[in-house]
Design a protein that fits this description.
The protein has 521 residues and is an alpha+beta fold. The chain is 28% helix and 24% strand. It is built from 15 helices and 27 strands. The strands form six sheets. The chain has an eight-stranded mixed β-sheet, with no helix packed on it. Helix 9 packs across helix 11. It is globular and about 65 Å long.
Length: 521
């Protein structure tokens, strides 16, 4: 089996029974904020795109690059389609000209031509990607690969059941806006960023230990930020609170926990994988030197992309759009239908819309209890977003149904909140279509505490995490009366059952009964 690195979460897997191109991303994503690093635009995409199979893990735009898929990937390729609850991924690929689809069943092994075996595990909670994320398992001639990309399954047991995995590709770096966009003192941002960076690595080590693959490939990050306004997010300043460590940082941190089997893929790197070995060649003479000169590479990359960024910015303004009317038309019908999400948000959310110079032009309130979008007055709000008005104009102009997979991931906003993180706020703005909203409402409605309890650290509590059902026998840590689920870093007070991380999501818990005294002999 031959694995060619093609940037970020993308790779091409070649076997004697066929080739699979995974998640090709080249063009900037999220309002020209994210770019793949290193630059992969100079690869021979005409050749790389001439494949037998295409796998797109999910609809995040650093995995689903519509322009690149349309131009460079053969429409003769068969799409390996995850089993998602909505048809949006298939619909968007059909719009790009793909006509051949192999619809997989989640967690089921499928044998393709020539003995090539694949399995896709689809995650379908509203918080997984834009209603879905997935991992791809591939086997041919006794060699097995798991491309986990940035999916976060509760465990990897299904993959371990299929035999020893020889190559494990997984995310290790940040892919979120927290804590950088929050209006906090810099010292607090640094502290929160350091915690998140450590949690990212801890989660990665847990997955690596679960699978125990022969070789580990850090992929799916980090992005780089080439716009001057976002340049500070690149991990080139020695900031311990930066959540975007690169592959060289992964290798250093992995070594601290005893990891010696890491394999870095640059765009153009090729790994020849067998059941017994992994031989990798790179397009640069010295990997350490390449990453040591990261800032120099980024500055050159920035100059090459400056015209692209400016062209994107010029396309955002739509002064003909009445933002208040557009938001009312888009959001109010969904507020009327929303029960669980609206209850979960529990209060109004304000958008302060600014000029490019940063002056507030208008403030718009999304009133969840009142089921209304209106001009803000002096109401207290628990969540507030501040962003350029023209970004909202553009979202309305293109009829974007997922503001998380556009505005929020762009990091082109700031946020303030009172109290805890509220996942329902972001879940709602991810679901700005009736299909998505109805699915999310049904998913949250179906969640019930499970019946099985475990006892750890003097407390009995439900085995499955109230957040995303992680197995707390594996991911749970009890310190005093506090439980932490290491999968996403959520915390609970076991005395009260109250979630310390977000609104709602209480856990069923109580102090464990003292063991009965044994009778004297």
């Amino acid at each position: 089996m031959r694995i060619t690195g093609t940037g970020h979460a993308s790779m091409r897997i070649d076997t004697a029974a066929g080739s699979i191109l995974c998640d090709p991303w080249v063009n900037p994503a999220y309002f020209a904020s994210w770019f793949p690093f290193p630059d992969n635009s100079q690869l021979d995409w005409e050749t790389l795109g001439d494949v037998d199979y295409l796998y797109v893990s999910h609809l995040h735009r650093d995995h689903f690059d519509a322009a690149h898929l349309k131009r460079y990937v053969s429409k003769k390729a068969t799409v390996l389609l995850p089993e998602y609850p909505t048809s949006q991924l298939e619909d968007e690929l059909r719009d790009l000209g793909f006509t051949r689809f192999f619809k997989t069943v989640s967690d089921e092994v499928h044998e393709l031509d020539g003995g090539l075996k694949v399995m896709i595990q689809a995650l379908i909670s509203p918080t997984d990607g834009p209603i879905g994320d997935s991992s791809l398992w591939v086997e041919h001639d006794g060699v097995r690969v798991l491309n986990q990309n940035d999916a976060r399954p509760t465990d990897l047991m299904r993959f371990t059941e299929l035999g020893h995995v020889h190559a494990h590709m997984l995310q290790f770096s940040g892919a979120i806006w927290y804590p950088m966009v929050y209006e906090l003192p810099q010292s607090a941002k640094t502290a929160f960023g350091k915690q998140k960076r450590e949690r990212q690595f801890d989660r990665t080590w847990r997955y690596i230990d679960d699978l125990k693959a022969s070789w580990v490939f850090p992929i799916a990050g980090p992005p780089c930020f080439l716009d001057d306004e976002l340049w500070q997010f690149n991990d080139i300043f020695g900031d311990e609170g930066n959540i975007f460590p690169d592959q060289s940082e992964f290798v250093k941190e992995y070594a601290k926990v005893g990891g010696t089997n890491g394999v870095v893929l640059l765009p153009g790197s090729v790994s020849a994988l067998t059941a017994d070995s992994c031989e990798t060649t790179h397009p640069v003479a010295d990997l350490d030197e390449f990453f040591a000169n990261k800032e120099e590479h980024l500055k050159a990359y920035q100059e090459r992309q400056r015209v692209v960024i400016e062209a994107e910015k010029a396309s955002w303004s739509h002064p003909e759009i009445d933002v208040l009317a557009g938001m009312k038309a888009r959001i109010e019908p969904l507020l009327d239908e929303s029960v669980r999400l609206a209850q979960g948000v529990g209060g109004p959310v304000r958008f302060d819309l600014t000029s490019p110079e940063g002056d507030v032009i208008e403030s718009i309130l999304v009133d969840f209890p009142g089921k209304e979008v209106r001009i803000a007055a002096d109401e207290k709000v628990r969540y507030r977003f501040r962003t350029e008005r023209r970004l909202i104009e553009h979202l309305l102009f293109i009829d974007e149904g997922d503001w998380v997979n556009s505005l929020f991931l762009s990091c082109r906003f700031s946020a303030a909140r009172i109290g805890q993180y509220n996942e329902f706020v972001y879940a709602f703005f991810k679901c700005l279509s009736e299909e998505r909203l109805q699915y999310a409402e049904g998913w949250y409605e179906s969640q019930r505490p499970d019946a099985e309890d475990i006892t750890v650290g003097g407390f009995s509590f439900q085995r499955r995490c109230p957040h995303l059902k992680a197995d707390l026998t594996r991911f749970g840590i009890v310190e005093g009366n506090q439980l932490t689920c290491q999968l996403h870093g959520w915390k609970w007070n076991l005395e009260t059952g109250r979630c310390l991380t977000s609104v709602g999501h209480e856990i069923r818990s109580e102090r464990a009964a003292e063991p009965a005294p044994q009778p004297a002999a």
